[in-house]
Amino acid sequence: IFTWHGATIEMDGGADTSDYVADETPMISYVNVHAVLEARRNRAKASSSSDSDSSQGPRVIVVGPTDSGKSTLSRMLLSWAAKQGWKPTFVDLDVGQGSITIPGCIAATPIEMPIDPVEGIPLEMPLVYFYGHITPSINLELYKVLVKELAQTLERQFAGNAESRAAGMVINTMGWIEGVGYELLLHAIDTFNADVVLVLGQEKLCSMLKDVLKNKLKVDVVKLQKSGGVVSRTPRYRQKSRGHRIRAPRSALPIGAEPTADPTRVVAVNISQDLLHLVLAVSFAKEPEEIISSNVAGFIYVTDVDVQRKKITYLAPSAGELPGRILILGTLAWLET
To answer: Which domain of life is it from (predicted)?
Structure first.
């Protein structure tokens, strides 16, 4: 808990509760970052050109290892911008946790008001692409294709909305920062044309990014200290947190699919008992060829499968017909506990 002006708090837990007052805090540096971003937004808004670099607000990407406070910093920067009257776009590329929607998706949504710490991010009109797994390593090419589709869709939206363009975006990333994970970070920075890279709690990563991005004059790489309130989460805790929406995956390939040389190829799935308890995305696509380039309307949960009649029974968030006839299967399952 951090406060600028002091606060009174009430704690439960008895002897198991430990509390202390920290002598140091990175909040000053976080607020300084907000001030710089605010100045850039004002300059972008004052620009008379609608398609030049000068009219583009800050595109901030937050990177760092697991449990470094990336999601928290992203929410703070978005909330502070919303308090100033901006409507920045929040982009979540972390398929493992899912800050905007369920895990296994990449998504974006405008933030119009400060984010409630309990209710989370309001979901009015999120732009969601279904990846279907909780780690990019299962299908790297598909992950990169969806990231590119999301970025291109946002570019088209910004081209017709000067206010959103000036407000910019804050991009949250996954904690995989080595090897292929590092390459995916570079891909995201390039694809979204990020001009501010905030590195949390990783001296080596900051040095590597500064070196590889040194020829991009308009990209600033800034190292920030991670908050002392950040704690390491165990795998069990992560699974439990993810389970509030969806349980962990059970296999690496969609049911009935065969390994293929093209990782972005769409494969038809047979109706079988293996579909039971799986989560399917409802695509806006009209034809199978449009699945990868189309975002999704929502999700359904399979509660029963009738193989003989080739029918499934499902739960949906609302009654009525589904907004699309094409369902997408990944490896996400939900088991009530």
So the answer is: Eukaryota
Looking at the structure, do residues 157 and 252 belong to the same domain, yes or no? no
The CATH number that applies at residue 133 is 3.40.50.300
Which residues, in sequence order, are CB contacts of 81 under 8 Å at separation 6+?
34, 37, 38, 41, 88, 111, 167, 170
Give the ranges where 134-258 is alpha helix by DSSP (H): 140-159, 162-167, 180-191, 203-212, 235-243
Q: Which of 175, 209, 224 is the last residue of a domain?
A: 224
Provide the number of structural domains found in the chain: 2
Return contacts of 311-315, CB within 8 angstroms, 24+ apart: 311/271, 312/271, 312/275, 314/280
Other C-beta atoms lying within 10 Å of the C-beta of residue 194? 27
pLDDT confidence tier of residue 246, bands split at 50, 70 and 90 = very low
Q: Is residue 79 part of a domain?
A: yes
| Range(s) of the domain holding residue 290 | 247-333
> Rounded to two decimals, what is the model's pTM?
0.82
Both 121 and 270 in one domain: the answer is: no
Q: What is the pLDDT of residues 170-190, one digit of tens each?
A: 999 999 999 999 999 999 999
For 184-236, what is each residue's pLDDT tens digit?
Answer: 999 999 999 999 999 998 899 999 999 999 998 889 999 999 876 555 555 65
CA distances to 110, 256, 261, 267, 316 from 123, rounded to whole Å, are 9, 33, 37, 30, 16
Q: Let me know whether 125 and 171 are in one domain.
A: yes
| Burial degree of 35 (CB within 10 A; 0-12, 13-18, 19+) | exposed
